[in-house]
Amino acid sequence: ATHDDRVEAKAQEEIYPAIEDFLKDKNKEEAARIFTGAGLVNQPLLTVREAANCDHFLERGSLGWYDDPYYGDVFTQKTMYKMSESPPRLKHVHRPVGSDNEEIYQRVSGLSADQIRELEAKEII
Fold this sequence. Notes:
It contains seven helices and two strands. By secondary structure, it is mainly α.
């Protein structure tokens, strides 16, 4: 079968069960060894703990500690882009629930800031 044949949805209905059947009695290291030995590019799926301690991700700065203005020190995925003229930046990890509501109300519903405050005062929003 050609590559185009194998990537069709119908072919995947046969391919995925075959892969699952092949892998059911192997751990990820065994599977990687077999695939690598057969010349197949592969990468074992990492657990969160394995990824958080993976030298590759840590050395590239893909994962690390970030001092979030809302939540303090958070270990998180950082920016993955590495551009020489545009250093990566991370403004925040997670914003508090509702922190963008006013901007969304204005953009989506066309409400003014005063209208939003009036609706908030009446506990409508």
